[in-house]
Structure formats: structure tokens, C-alpha cells
């Protein structure tokens, strides 16, 4: 893959059996919204993803902090292999079951304390996902410093099984045993992903584990925008640039 004049990386010459594609969703495929439920899926994205999945022989997966059920609702009627809740949920086959990993019981017990901390700011939203607790403050940016400090203290007191992810305008408590990197590893050990060169596209610190996982096996990590916790130059300026790039790939796949 080579850089083009537009500043984003050009697609491979052909979509053959050598590639596997892993896609973060919010901030990568979709533009960030003030609230998670307010995101929109552009009309052209679903058919582009469908063509890409077919061109890759099914070796394309969504890897997101959202639940798999949420991903299905967003992209319906398209159903893809998916990892939800940062790898705590895995669906290898679009027609298969969602498998959930074990979650440390300490995590759900922290929800009341997290809600109490967030209640200080009316526009801070707490989202209990099951395998993670997300605290969104995009509509209350003034809460960032104090809220982050309080959540760090809470996680430290909870012990080593829980960690705090400090993403873009969100803080997320999760079981540290499940990451986007572990999800990539599970996919790469299963057909049709096995033996391919993986590409992971993401925009946030929550994607760093996915980047490391693909690079560890000779794959390619592609960052969207700039994040201080991701020490790499961006491959794309924003989600719109990612969608444009995927559209190019989809057209090549259709012509192949």
C-alpha cells in the first residue's frame, strides 16, 4: 500500500485472499455524534461493506466498543463477523452465535459508584454495556479532568482486573482480559481469516491493542486522525476519508 496525493493510503492492487480487514466503527466508519445513539450510517456505506466482505471471502470484521447487537441494528440488514465490547463478545460467522467471554464480577458492581460520580454533571451519560461501563462527556467537556481523576481512583481501588480506557470524550471501565487485540487473535485463528495479512483501521486509544495485534503478525495498522496516546502518523484525516477509501476498494472488488 502506498500513500496517494490525498494523504491517505491507497488500496491494494486487488482484493484477493491475502487480506483480512478489521474495522473500528465510531470515529472510523462513522462520524462521532454527541451521543452514541445519535450516529448515522451513510447510505452508501452498507453496500460498500457488503461488496468488500464478498471480495475478501468474508474476511472482514467490525471490532467495536459497542455490543454486537448494537452493530447489527446500526448496519441492518447487513450482518458481518463482529467483536463487541472491545473483544468481550465475538461472532466469527455472520449467521453464527455471539460468544461472550467471562467478565470479572467486580465490574458490574462498580456501576452504582460510576453513576454517582457522573451525576455531578447533568450532561454526562453512563452506558452499562455488560462487559464494560462507558462514561460519555462529549456534551460536558468541562467534566473531563475531575471525572477522569475520580474514575482512575475508583479503578485503582477495584484491583488489577479492571482498567480504565481514556478515549475521545469517553472513559470506559472494562475487564482487562478482553481487548480488540485479543479479538483480532481469535479471528486470525479462524477461517476465513487464517493465513491472511490483517489490516486494522481505528481512531482511538481503544484501538491500540488491535494495532499491536496486527503488526505482531506482519499486518498493517492504519490510524484515523491524531490521538496523543497513539504514537503513529495518521493514515486518514477522518471517518469520511476512511469511507472514501473503502468505496475505492469496493469498486475494485466489484470489477474484479
UniProtKB/TrEMBL annotation:
Gene3D superfamilies: HAD superfamily/HAD-like, Trehalose-6-phosphate phosphatase related protein, domain 2. It holds the Pfam family Trehalose_PPase. Pathway: Glycan biosynthesis; trehalose biosynthesis. One of its GO terms (biological process) is trehalose biosynthetic process. GO terms for molecular function: metal ion binding; trehalose-phosphatase activity. InterPro entries: HAD-like_sf, HAD-SF_hydro_IIB, HAD_sf, OTSB-like, Trehalose_PPase. It catalyses: alpha,alpha-trehalose 6-phosphate + H2O = alpha,alpha-trehalose + phosphate. It is an enzyme of class 3 (hydrolase). Its EC number is 3.1.3.12. Its cofactor is Mg(2+). Keywords: Hydrolase, Magnesium, Metal-binding. Removes the phosphate from trehalose 6-phosphate to produce free trehalose. Belongs to the trehalose phosphatase family. PANTHER family: TREHALOSE 6-PHOSPHATE PHOSPHATASE. NCBIfam families: HAD-SF-IIB, T6PP. This is Trehalose 6-phosphate phosphatase. It comes from Stella humosa.
Amino acid at each position: 500500500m502506498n500513500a496517494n496525493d490525498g494523504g491517505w493510503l491507497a488500496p491494494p492492487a486487488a482484493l484477493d485472499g491475502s487480506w483480512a480487514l478489521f474495522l473500528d466503527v465510531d470515529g472510523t466508519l462513522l462520524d462521532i455524534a454527541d451521543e452514541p445513539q445519535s450516529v448515522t450510517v451513510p447510505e452508501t456505506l452498507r453496500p460498500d461493506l457488503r461488496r468488500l466482505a464478498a471480495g475478501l471471502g468474508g474476511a472482514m470484521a467490525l471490532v467495536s466498543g459497542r455490543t454486537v447487537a448494537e452493530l447489527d441494528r446500526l448496519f441492518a440488514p447487513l450482518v458481518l463477523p463482529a467483536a463487541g465490547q472491545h473483544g468481550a463478545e465475538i461472532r466469527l460467522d455472520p449467521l453464527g452465535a455471539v460468544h461472550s467471554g467471562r467478565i470479572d464480577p467486580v465490574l458490574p458492581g462498580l456501576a452504582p459508584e460510576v453513576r454517582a460520580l457522573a451525576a455531578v454533571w447533568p450532561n454526562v451519560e453512563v452506558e452499562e454495556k455488560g462487559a464494560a461501563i462507558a462514561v460519555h462527556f462529549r456534551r460536558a467537556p468541562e467534566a473531563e479532568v475531575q471525572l477522569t481523576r475520580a474514575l482512575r481512583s475508583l479503578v485503582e481501588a477495584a484491583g488489577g482486573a479492571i482498567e480504565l480506557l481514556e478515549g475521545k470524550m469517553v472513559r470506559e471501565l472494562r475487564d482487562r482480559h478482553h481487548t480488540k487485540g485479543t479479538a483480532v487473535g481469535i479471528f486470525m485463528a479462524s477461517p476465513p481469516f487464517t493465513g491472511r495479512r490483517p489490516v486494522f483501521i481505528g481512531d482511538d486509544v481503544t484501538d491500540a491493542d488491535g494495532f499491536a495485534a496486527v503488526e505482531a503478525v506482519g499486518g498493517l495498522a492504519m490510524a484515523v486522525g491524531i490521538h496523543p496516546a497513539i504514537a503513529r502518523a495518521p493514515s486518514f484525516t477522518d471517518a469520511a476519508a476512511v469511507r472514501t477509501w473503502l468505496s475505492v476498494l469496493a469498486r475494485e472488488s466489484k470489477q474484479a
